[in-house]
Structure formats: C-alpha cells, structure tokens
UniProtKB/TrEMBL annotation:
Domain of life: Eukaryota
GO MF entries: succinate-semialdehyde dehydrogenase (NAD+) activity
Keywords: Oxidoreductase
PANTHER family assigned: SUCCINATE-SEMIALDEHYDE DEHYDROGENASE, MITOCHONDRIAL (PTHR43353)
Family statement: Belongs to the aldehyde dehydrogenase family.
Name assigned to this protein: Aldehyde dehydrogenase domain-containing protein
Residues passing through the membrane, by range: none
Annotated InterPro entries: Ald_DH/histidinol_DH, Ald_DH_C, Ald_DH_CS_GLU, Ald_DH_N, Aldehyde_DH_dom, Aldehyde_DH_Superfamily
Catalytic residues, chain numbering: 259
Organism: Anopheles maculatus
Upper lineage: Eukaryota, Metazoa, Ecdysozoa, Arthropoda, Hexapoda
C-alpha cells in the first residue's frame, strides 16, 4: 500500500470529526505478509466509545435524521456507493496490506461489499408497512416499520469491507445511526470507508468508527451491549465471543444479530461431476487462505470417488501461487496473525498424532514470511481429532471417507454449528433429499461460492441469529408499530 493513499487515515471518526483517543494512546497496524508497520491508529477505551455512542444517539434524535425520508437516505447511500466504486483500487490496496489477502480477492471483496450499499440504497425505499382488514367495522388496523435507534456493529478482520457495508448500509437504510468497531487487525479499511462516508454527506454522528487494540475490546463490547443508548448489536466473529455478547445484551433485552463460526461440511457423492466438485472445493476452501466463516471445513467424500477426488485436488493445490498478496498472480497469502498460525499448526499436529495422514503440505513457509502455511490435505480423519470437530480457519483440507448418504448426513449434522454446507451430486432425488436434511442456514448445491447480496446470509444452531443481506437484512434494524384507529364513523 502506498503511504500516499488518500484514503489511509490515522484517526478514528466520531461525530463527524477525525479524533484520537483521549489518552493519546495508539496501536500499530501490521502487514501480515511481511510484518511491516502500516501506521498507527487510536487505541480507544470505554470513555472514548461512550462519546461515539452519545454522538450516534444525539444524531438519531436530531430532527434532520429522525425525520429523514427513505428517499433522502437512499440518495446518501447512493453517494457513498459511487465514491466506493470510484476508489476501488485504493480500498483494495489498503485491504491487501492489512489483511494479507491477494489483491484480486480484495478487489472482489470491494465489488461484493459495495453491492450491499447499492442494494440497501434501493431497499430503503421499500420498507413497507401493512394495512390489515379489521375484525370490527369501525376500526382501521395499520402496521408501520420504524428504526430501532443506535446500532453497535462489531466486525471481523477476514472481510474488513463487506462485513461493515452489509451491516451499516442496512442500518442506515432503515434510519438507524451506527457505531462501528472494526477488528484490531484491520481498522484501516473501516477508516477508509468512514472517509468516503464523510465525503458522501451523511450528517455528523450518523456513522462513527472507533478503533481499539485487543486490550480494550472486551470493555468496549460490554459497553455497547450494556448501554441504554444502543438499541441493537450486530456481530460477526467467533461463536465464543458471540455467546458472551448475547449474554451481555440480555439485561437490556437488546436486539441482536449474530453471524458466528461455522464447521461447513463439503460432501461429494459418487454421482458428482468431479471437475465441478474440485473447482468448488478450491473456491470454497482457499479463498482468503481458508479464513472465511463459510469455508468448507470437513470434506466428506464417498468411498467410490474418494481416491480420485483426493488425487485431483492435490494436483490443483500444488499449482497455487503463494506469496505477498500485493504481487500479481498470487493466490494464497499469509494467515492474519501468529495466534491463527499457531492454531492451524496445532490442529494439523493433533491429527498426525492421532493417526491421520498428511498427503500434502503441513508445514510453515518461512521463506515467504513468518505467517505463511502450506495448503494442506489431511486424510484418514477420525472423530477424536480437532480437525474433525472444530473450524480450522486456515488452508487445510480435512478428508473423511463415507459409504452411505445417511452416514454423510449424520457426520455433517453432528455438530452444534450450522452456518453453510456444500454438496455435489447429479442425482436429482438425492439433491432434494439432502438439501432438506442438511442442518445449515445456507447450502451450496454443485457450487462452492454462494455469497450474494440478494440472498439471506446467516446460520442456525450455534452459528447465529438473524439474517444479513437480502430484503431480510433490514429486519434486524426495524421494529413493527401497530396502530389501531378506533371509533371511526361509518
């Protein structure tokens, strides 16, 4: 990333102003590809965030925002979208530098993230109410939708652009104001979006972005969940943190949307088109170095095609170009940080210790940098291994052999997670059967890339509550008011 990138900010954005932490504290943002320090941003604490909450709360009740029309909010979102489109390269360059993902993927995320702003700019004008036939002749029953208030948005490092736009655009379209807390690994993308929001003409206090290191993350989460001035929380991240926030929101009976961890099954049945299955596996597994919540985690391959699938997959994996994501042609970048690398190493070592076979990869790649890990295939997995039971969030394909459809479904559904699932089959009866029985909120059928703005994104079981994107994405930020007009003269 060029240091002269006009979107690169070193301050947080609160109440329409660029501001530091009151303590003056900052923390460094590093490039995971080479450890280079990209810059420093404010290390804000509870008191700083309270100011952002106050600003969002005051802005919500300002006549100018509270009484804004859907058409006006739509126009502002359209402005924001146009500026994001105009600055695609600059946003992608910041994202690659701080997250490590290849530039081509960052540009893809900009397209995807921008599409949410465009979509919700359009949906703003379709937040309809209802008129319901009354059971009594002299009454009129009407239901209208209203914004809930201030929304606290806590976003992850793996999609630092799209996870913000997917939440913020929906909240703003509904008429809410937002306080955004980006992940400490990737705050620069969030600040770049704030810079463009400022240019787009949002009133001060409508969009606030606060930055903090891990040191203050817990207290900030607690404040957002506990504050009477915050009406809704939306969080994307680990199931463990999501459960904690859910508990903290209980006291205020706060609206909450959670998009949490997955443990996605990827099932290949014997009738599958093998080339499509291999391409689907590559797309689903290796995007962002395997660090996506809907990444395939457990590869369940039917006996008859197991060996062919593994051989062909290894052949494709060996061709992947690894390196610094800012270089042309690179397909696999580094893991985000040391904790993530340590986790991947531990999971693979655990599988080896318990009898699994590492068919390719399985090593760190110090020649590229401190956080690189080889794309890896592990076979002969058993149910006592970490790779079998938990989400690895790295470039590791964990292969489980199965005999029957019933066995595959039992393994796939034998987890408390239920975000995404994938299966490949050309047997139409099987397609309908398995789609009905697979316990996940989203399913890719003969497809490895399923995310789309128009579709409802979210999971079941311990993978979350609520849906993002689609027309349902607005539901998280509005409540229904019932109006009963009585004693009307006939």
């Amino acid at each position: 990333m060029h240091s002269n990138n006009p979107l690169k900010q070193s301050k947080a954005f609160v109440n329409g102003s660029w501001t530091g932490a009151r303590s003056g504290a900052t923390f460094d943002v590093q490039n995971p590809a080479n450890g280079e320090v990209l810059g420093a941003v404010p290390d804000m604490n509870r008191e700083d965030v309270q100011l952002a909450i106050d600003a969002a709360y005051d802005a919500f009740y300002q006549p100018s925002w509270h009484n804004s029309t859907a058409k006006e909010r739509s126009a502002m979102l359209k402005n924001w979208h146009a500026l994001m489109e105009k600055n695609r390269q600059e946003i992608a360059s910041i994202m690659t530098a701080e997250s490590g993902k290849p530039l081509v993927e960052s540009l893809g995320e900009v397209t995807y993230g921008n599409s949410f702003v465009e979509w919700f700019a359009e949906e703003a004008r379709r937040i309809y109410g209802e008129i319901v036939p009354s059971p009594v002749a002299n009454r009129q029953i009407m239901m209208t939708r209203h914004p809930v208030g201030v929304a606290g948005l806590i976003t992850p490092w793996n999609f630092p652009h799209a996870m913000i736009t997917r939440k913020a655009a929906a909240a703003i379209a509904a008429g809410c104001t937002v306080v955004i807390k980006p992940a400490e690994d990737t705050p620069l993308t969030a600040l770049a979006l704030a810079r463009l929001a400022e240019e787009a003409g949002f009133p001060k206090g409508v969009i606030n972005v606060i930055t903090s290191s891990r040191t203050h993350a817990a207290e900030i989460g607690q404040l957002l969940c506990g504050s009477d001035k915050v009406a809704a929380i939306s969080f994307t991240g680990s199931t463990e943190v999501g459960k904690l926030l859910y508990r903290q929101c209980a006291d205020g009976v706060k609206r909450i949307g959670l998009e949490l961890g997955g443990n996605a099954p990827f099932i290949v049945f014997k009738s599958a088109d093998m080339e499509k299955a291999i391409t689907g596996a590559m797309n689903s597994k290796f995007r962002n170095c395997g660090q996506t919540c809907i990444s395939a985690n457990r590869f369940l391959i039917q006996d008859e095609v197991h060996d062919e699938f593994v051989e062909k997959l290894i052949e494709r994996i060996r061709k992947l170009a690894i390196g610094d994501g800012s270089r042309e042609g690179v397909q696999i970048g580094p893991l985000i940080n040391q904790a993530q690398l340590t986790k991947v190493e531990r999971f693979v070592q655990d599988a080896k210790d318990k009898g699994a076979t590492v068919r390719c990869g399985g090593q760190t790649l110090p020649k590229h940098g401190a956080l690189y890990y080889e794309p890896t295939v592990v076979t002969d997995l058993q149910d006592n291994m970490l790779l079998y039971n938990e989400e690895v969030f790295g470039p590791v394909v964990s292969v489980v052999r199965f005999k029957t459809e019933a066995e595959a479904l039992a393994i796939a559904n034998g987890t408390r997670r239920g975000l995404a699932g994938y299966f490949f089959s050309n047997d139409l009866n099987q397609v309908f059967r398995v789609a009905r029985q697979l316990e996940t909120g989203m399913i890719g059928i003969n497809e490895g890339l399923i995310s789309a703005t128009e579709a409802a994104f979210g999971g079941i079981k311990e993978s979350g509550i609520g849906r993002e994107g689609s027309r349902h994405g607005i539901d998280e930020y509005v409540y229904i008011k019932y109006l009963c007009y009585g004693n009307l003269q006939q």
